[in-house]
Design brief:
It contains 6 helices and no strands. It has 133 residues and is mostly helical. The protein is elongated, with a radius of gyration of 19 Å.
């Protein structure tokens, strides 16, 4: 990813700046406490978050309001989209298209309700954009 972000810099400078940025970010995350978790704990946290969102979406899909095409439903179970829908869809879409997060892609694809929700939102509101497949 370094070559994309620092493409305008010569390669040796890319390495140096990349290492400096990595060290600074690692120190910041460690200082905040986030960097002290093991990779297994981080995976568990991610899975728990997506499990809870999947449960919320499952409940919302069961009480969805009629009038929306293709079984479209919204995260808070209302009759239309809210800021919560835009936020959740943005996180799901980003998780599915980001090549730097293959673990998140795998976790997301294991939740059919989340995938169905994102597919329906994408088809209804963003049909002109490429689908993550």
């Amino acid at each position: 990813m370094r070559s994309g972000v620092f493409a305008a810099l010569p390669y040796p400078v890319q390495i140096l700046v990349g290492q400096l940025a990595y060290r600074k970010m690692s120190a910041t995350l460690y200082g905040q406490g986030t960097g002290r978790f093991t990779p297994e704990e981080i995976t568990q946290f991610k899975t728990e978050v997506w499990e809870n969102l999947n449960a919320l979406l499952t409940a919302s899909s069961r009480k969805r309001r009629s009038g929306w095409p293709d079984g479209l439903f919204f995260v808070l179970g209302g009759s239309g989209p809210t800021e919560a829908d835009t936020t959740l869809f943005g996180f799901v879409a980003a998780g599915l298209v980001c090549a730097a997060a293959p673990e998140t892609q795998t976790i997301l694809r294991n939740f059919p309700t989340i995938m169905s929700y994102a597919d329906k939102i994408h088809k209804h509101y963003f049909p002109d954009y490429e689908h993550w497949a």
